[in-house]
User: Fold this.
Amino acid sequence: KLDIYKRIAEIADERERDDMRDELLDRFGEIPASVDHLLRIALVRAAAHRLYMTEIRGKCAKIVFTFLPNAKLDPAGIPGLLKEQGQDLSFTAYGIPFFTYKCKKTGLAETDGDLMLERTETLLERMGEVLHITS
Assistant:
């Protein structure tokens, strides 16, 4: 079991996630939702690491994406990303830079959690596209 958790924690891309999912399916049968979430979170962690993030925190219908102060990202994409997301996304540049995304709540904890994870995945993908890593 520990070996599987360790391998899940080391997932770096979708191919590795899909390989792990296939292996788990072959070994144990149908994959529970909690394990699928764990695989998705492993990809979130890998994407956050590539974007020089120190933390992603979801709480009270907000998702906060915190960056290293010296993150090697191109800030030229920030205004377009903010415009694209409307009033739901804000950026704070002073001190430790971070984005805050306001989620819409449904009132159902499980649904809200799924929506927050899905939105986190989508935002990380967009950030990776517009905040090009610089040297």
